[in-house]
Amino acid sequence: MRPVQPQNSNGAGPPPETAGHILSVQSLTVSFDGFTVLDELDFSMEYGEMRFLIGPNGAGKTTLIDVITGKSKPDSGRIIFDGATDLRRRQEHQLVRLGVGRKFQTPAIFSSLSVYENLEVTLGFRAKITSLLGGHRRGDADRIQATLEQVGLDRRAKDIAGALSHGEKQWLEIGMLLVQEPKLLLLDEPVAGMTRRERERTGELLQAIGNDRSVLVVEHDMEFVRQFARTVTVLHLGKVLSEGPMDMVQQDPEVIRAYLGHGKTKRTESGGAANQNVAGSRVGVQAVVVE
Ligand SMILES: Nc1ncnc2c1ncn2[C@@H]1O[C@H](COP(=O)(O)OP(=O)(O)OP(=O)(O)O)[C@@H](O)[C@H]1O
């Protein structure tokens, strides 16, 4: 099910350049102390799309999410969300209400509360107080239960969140975003530090979430990206270097060059140790190695 696209106040639909896009970043420039991090960046995502954002260290991936969520301010450009709202004019705390959920790399959960209470608190203190009095706001309990099942934590609902494994904490935090029913979910390296099994389950979870929401995932783990990505955007020096299916993107000579820096390259039979860039990060290049 795809979310219904918004109409302008005159009912004529979204501006033509943003039609069909949950997010439309236009000519976005961000600089820190005179150093340009995002350079007139154009980037867009369609409704109900799951997109992976990759790129070498320092490419500007986190900065893009910071600007979308109001954590950093751009020098110029526009960020149109849901066809009409310019996010540049919004504060960080307003984003949840608008329908943008962000997850940082480290899980931010309430360790001393139960899994269930974490979701309950996220839904708002009104729900918490109501539950202390013996009831829930109508629909909250159902929403919490559905979210617990979606993130695979229904059997751990009564457990203290601090006792969860690293992967389970990440799923709980994803659940804390989902329970707020965001239209766009922004996830920064969601599988960092996870076991192989946890990565698999996270990939399946993201695909399920991507069926009815838009999801932007910043990720360095290229094995994970290859397995679960539909469309990939490669950011380099604050611009989109390449975009498309992973198979296509990882063959792009520009992408190979960007990841491997200025080292001399040669073809190899397979990946293995070649899947390291000059800074030591795993990259999406299987057939090239720096000598
Ligand atoms: N608040 C800030 N002040 C100054 N410089 C910053 C700030 N935030 C980011 N930068 C710089 O902007 C550049 C891009 O950083 P960013 O974190 O967006 O890259 P990234 O693509 O997410 O990299 P990584 O994959 O290593 O996380 C880096 O050179 C970084 O040092």
TrEMBL record:
GO terms for cellular component: plasma membrane. Residues 23-262 form the ABC transporter domain. Keywords: ATP-binding, Nucleotide-binding, Transport. SMART domains: AAA. It comes from the Eukaryota. It holds the Pfam family BCA_ABC_TP_C. The keyword Nucleotide-binding applies. GO terms for molecular function: ATP binding; ATP hydrolysis activity. InterPro entries: AAA+_ATPase (IPR003593), ABC_AA/LPS_Transport (IPR051120), ABC_transporter-like_ATP-bd (IPR003439), ABC_transptr_urea_ATP-bd_UrtD (IPR017781), BCA_ABC_TP_C (IPR032823), P-loop_NTPase (IPR027417). This is High-affinity branched-chain amino acid transport ATP-binding protein LivG. It comes from Geodia barretti (Barrett's horny sponge).
